[in-house]
Prior knowledge:
With 383 residues, the protein is α+β, with helices and mostly antiparallel strands. Mean pLDDT is 83; it is low at 73-86 and 88-101. The longest helix is centred in the N-terminal third of the chain and has 18 residues, at 39-56. The protein has helices at 5-9, 17-31, 39-56, 58-65, 84-92, 122-127, 272-277, 347-359, 376-381, and strands at residues 114-120, 129-140, 156-157, 166-173, 176-183, 192-193, 206-217, 226-229, 245-251, 258-260, 263-271, 279-284, 301-306, 315-318, 333-340. The relative contact order is 0.10. Helices cover 22% and strands 26% of the residues. Strands 10-11-15-14 form a 4-stranded mixed β-sheet. A 3-stranded mixed β-sheet has the order 1-9-8. A two-stranded antiparallel sheet has the order 2-7. Strand 4 (166-173) and strand 5 form a beta hairpin. It contains 9 helices and 15 strands.
Amino acid sequence: MSQDPYDLLGVARDADADTIKKAYRRLARQLHPDVNPDPESQEKFKEVTAAYEVLTDPQKRAAFDRGGDPFGGAGFGQGAGFSFTDIMDAFFGGQGGPGGGRGPRSRMRRGQDALIRIEIDLAEAAFGVSRELKVDTAVLCETCHGDGAAPGSQPVPCETCRGQGEVAHVQRSFLGEVRTLRPCAACRGFGTIIPEPCRECSGDGRVRSRRTLTVKIPAGVDTGTRVQLGEQGEVGPGGGPAGDLYVEIHVASHPTFTREGNDLHCTVTLPMTAAALGTTLTLPTLEADVEQGAESGVETSFEIEVEPGTQSGTQQVLRGRGVPGLRGGRGDLVVTTIVETPSRLDPRQEELLRELAALRGEEQPSGQVKAQQKSVFGRLFGH
């Protein structure tokens, strides 16, 4: 050989594989034709690449250390073929060499996740519920048990790629022979061919089927909450592990209550006489919607006191009567009172209201007009 590969790469004679690879990577970045088009640099790049090929091949390196010519008399850097994968391995840390490809890929892959949407009542969302679902997904083929071959047969090695799942394509360039690996078209990269596919699944290892699942929806869920059922989704090709099933919740509207977070809101409308004199109201609870009679002693209603003189828009907050939280605790119930003014009065009712107005000195009410309070910003800057 005309030059010493150790000197070309700038490494010691006892350098290990990692040191050699780092040295080549550093020089290749400086001398590669895409970076440095100078003819001398291109020739130097060929020599450095050939040196790297010698020192990374145990047989060639041993032959050179014994004083032999690993190229069989060819001048160093002349006619020395190298593969494109060798260069990529040096840059990205791959295995390198003819046997360092990806190899055949498995027919067995994880299945896709599945999503199903269901609607539940507000009470069911608050206290939890179990639901049976009918799910149409891919399941394991019982005929071939996932391997895709008809009973009594089995996959055979691909003759085109000899079971490697890849074929090499070699091209010549000014750098030498450039070898690239591509998935085998005959076996689609699997390395095996199924001569007799299963008639039930057509070789996929799975079939479509409808099955019934029971999902437990925890207390406190809301619209948009997703409940995850592990490995209840699609079975993967080749009988691979199933994906997950996600159950997305939609909570139906309630005739009495609306929900804001874990709080419940409801509105009661009172005549002005009840608001003025005070009264007692009976309100239903959410528990009343959960399977009547299924649990003895469940409170289905409760009473609230409306104080005399209650104004329209007054709110009462009842602690702990809202929706249970997913992480514990329970929200509140907010009751808003709306006072209703009568729009139609008969003569006697009108007479009584006029007498009341006279007794209260309200025959000619002037009303109270208050100036709008300035904001903090307005008070500070005079606006």
